[in-house]
């Protein structure tokens, strides 16, 4: 692992509709590291994720991924070239393709594509949906498929925005277990946005808090604890 590995967000300032949402926000996610980002509703968590993903451009500051400047330098690196798997709160699956087609599209011409699609779908729990169109899925089903598609691209980092928000408690716990499994197996760095203390504790990563337009580190989540421990 090199010294520059990881996602470095440095001094990001972002204004939306004339209002500053982020003002000097910084964070670092190491390669293979898990981070949970919390913060009150409307504080800018999704905006931060969208900036890292290349779906927004900041007013100032920069973002490096594994030592390469992707935002705040020239050229701006396009979202699909950042080595990221991204699952937004309202997943955007491609409507003209089946669920299997959505996964196949990000896998290129890999020979073992069909086996990998089936293995991922079985693991995440959407094998029975592979032939369906995205517009026929429930919100919770679409979130699972979006996670499958994000992992199918074998990203270096996974950015998840409230990935269990549409699931009941049992499905939430199962999906968090799958996320942990996959992240460990593929050595993926994880940024997991959540309001939910149970999910945050399950992910058991470094805890970050977004408030007053900046990010602070608040400790490490522990299963069975009270949410936060340490600094
Ligand atoms: N496209 C937009 N134009 C103008 N304002 C926006 C836009 N998107 C978000 N905002 C505002 O920016 C702020 C941050 O929004 P964001 O979605 O990043 O917050 P969040 O912390 O993810 O919220 P939640 O936890 O409710 O999902 C909010 O006040 C929101 O109303």
From TrEMBL:
SMART domains on file: AAA
GO terms assigned for molecular function: ATP binding; ATP hydrolysis activity
Any one Pfam family match given in the protein's UniProt record, by short name: ABC_tran
ABC transporter domain boundaries: 7-231
This protein's record includes keyword Kinase: no
InterPro entries attached to this UniProt entry: AAA+_ATPase, ABC_SmlMolc_Importer, ABC_transporter-like_ATP-bd, ABC_transporter-like_CS, P-loop_NTPase
This protein's UniProt keywords: ATP-binding, Nucleotide-binding, Transport
Protein name, as recorded: ATP-binding cassette domain-containing protein
Organism: Thiorhodococcus minor
């Amino acid at each position: 692992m090199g010294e520059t590995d990881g996602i470095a967000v440095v001094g990001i300032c972002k204004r939306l509709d004339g209002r500053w949402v982020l003002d000097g926000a910084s964070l670092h996610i190491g390669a293979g590291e898990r981070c949970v980002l919390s913060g009150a509703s409307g504080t800018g968590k999704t905006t931060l994720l969208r900036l890292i993903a290349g779906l927004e451009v900041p007013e100032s500051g920069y973002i490096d991924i594994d030592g390469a400047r992707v935002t705040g330098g020239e050229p701006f690196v396009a979202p699909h070239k950042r080595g990221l798997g991204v699952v937004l709160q309202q997943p955007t699956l491609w409507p003209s393709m089946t669920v299997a087609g959505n996964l196949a599209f990000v896998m290129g011409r890999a020979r073992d594509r069909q086996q990998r699609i089936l293995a991922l779908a079985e693991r995440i729990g959407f094998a029975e949906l592979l032939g369906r169109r995205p517009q026929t899925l429930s919100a919770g089903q679409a979130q699972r498929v979006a996670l499958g598609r994000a992992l199918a691209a074998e990203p270096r980092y996974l950015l998840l925005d409230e990935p269990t928000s549409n699931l009941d408690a049992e499905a939430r716990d199962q999906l968090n277990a799958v996320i942990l499994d996959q992240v460990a197996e593929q050595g993926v760095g994880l940024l997991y946005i959540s309001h939910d203390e149970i999910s945050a504790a399950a992910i058991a990563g470094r805890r970050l808090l977004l408030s007053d337009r900046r990010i602070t580190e608040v400790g490490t989540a522990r299963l069975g604890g009270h949410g936060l421990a340490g600094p």
